[in-house]
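Write out the 3D structure for:
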Amino acid sequence: MTTAADYSEKIPNNVELHEDRRLQRALESWQPNFLSWWESMGPTLPTQDVYLRTAVNVGREGWAHFGHVAMRDYRWGIFLAERDPDRRIGFGQHRGEPAWQQVPGEYRADLQRLIVIQGDTEPASVEQQRNLGATAPSLYDLRNLFQVNVEEGRHLWAMVYLLHAHFGRDGREEAEQLLHRNSGSLESPRILGAFNEETPDWLSFFMFTYFTDRDGKYQLGTLKESAFDPLSRTCEFMLKEESHHMFVGTTGIDRIVARTAQLMRENDTDDVVAYGAIPLDTIQKYLNFHYSVSLDLFGSETSTNVANYFTAGIKGRWAEGRRKDDHRLTDDSFLVDALIDGAATQTEVAALVGLNTDLRREYIGDCQNGVNRWNRILQEADLPQRLRLPHIAFNRRVGAFAGIEATPDGELLSAQEWERRKGDFLPTDVDKTYVRSLMKPVHERGKIAAWIAPPRVGINGRPFEYEYVHLA
C-alpha cells in the first residue's frame, strides 16, 4: 500500500524491495547493464544537467519533483499505483473474482509475452531519438525530449521489475534481451515494426510522440484492466507519465502548424519554403506515414489470441469499467474492417475476436481530436487548408489491407500506380532532405528555430526563457 518512493535505496521504489533481498540483488545486478545501455544507446548530446521531473509519489497530487539533474544520475525506479485490497477482476471468465497478486500458471506464457512486448517498445524509442538533441529547436524542446527519454527508461524498469519479480529465470533472461535488441538493427531488431523506423528530425519526433506514443496509451490502458494486479498497477502509473509524451507531440505539431500558418498569412502564399518553414502538404505527408504505421501496431482486425487474453482476464478493453455490456462478450458480435471483393468494407464477427478493431477505433477517435485541434489553428488564421487522417486502408502492412495499396481517400491502386503516386502521399527523399535542412540547433536561452512557434507556457510554471538545459 506504500505510495511514496524510497530514495534511500540504490533502486528507488515503492514496492518494499528491501524485503526481498534475492529480487533486490537480481535487479541491482541488472542496473549496471541498463546504465551501460543508456550510455551507449541513449541521448548523444553532452549535458551538465536538465530540468527534469522525477516521480516521488504515486498519489494524484504532488507526485513529481522538478529540478536540474545530471542525466546519468536520474533516479530511475520502480513505482506501482496504490493497491486496492478489494479489487475484483472486471471482465472475462474470472469476472468478479479477486485480482491476482501472483501469476496463474496457465497464463504465465501469455502474460510474460505481453510484458516483454510492452517492455521492448520503451528502450526502442530512446534509441530512435538518441541523436535529436543535436538539432533541438530550443532549450524548452530539448528538455522535453530528455524528459520523454528518461521516462521511457523508467517504463523499461517497470516491465523489468515484473519480469524479475514474477517470472523467475525466464523473466531474468527476457530482461537481459530487452537491452540486447536495438532499434533498426539488422541482426537483433526491436519486436514491433514502428520501433525500427528512423526518427531523424523533430517533425518526425512530434508525429511519433503524438501517434505512436498514443498507441502506447491504449495498449497500457488495456493492460491496466488486467486481472494480474501488479501489471495493472504498473500500467496505471505509467499512464500518468505517458500523458506528457503525448502533450509533447500534440503541442509540437500545434506550434509547427501555427508557424506555417503565420508565414502563409504574412506572405500570402502556400509556399513557405522560402521562409524556412514546413509546408502544410509536407506536414500532411508526415502525418500520413506516422498514423498508418501506428495503426499497424494494433495488429490484425481479428485475433483469437486477443480473444483468449480477454476471456482469461489478462488484457481488457479500453475503459472496461464504463462499458455497458456483460464484460464477457461470449454471445456478442462486432463489425470489423475488411477487404471484400476488392473493396474496403466491414464484416460481422464474434465480438471477442474483434477486440483489436475495437481498440483501434478508440485510438482513431482520439487521433481525430488532435487533427481537429490543428485545423482550428488554420481556421483561426483564416486559411482554407485542412489536415486530415488518411483512410484506414492507406499504407497498411498488417491486417486486412496489408496486401493492397490505397490512396489517403481510400481509392484502391495497382502496384504500378502506387509506385508512381506514393510521393504525393508519403514523405519523399526531397521532403525529408528539406525538413532535415531546417534542423539547425538553437541552444541559446529564449531563442527558437524559425520553423516552429514558441510554446504558450513553459514547464512547471517556468517561462519559455528559462535555462531548462545546461549543456556540457
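The chain has a mean pLDDT of 96.
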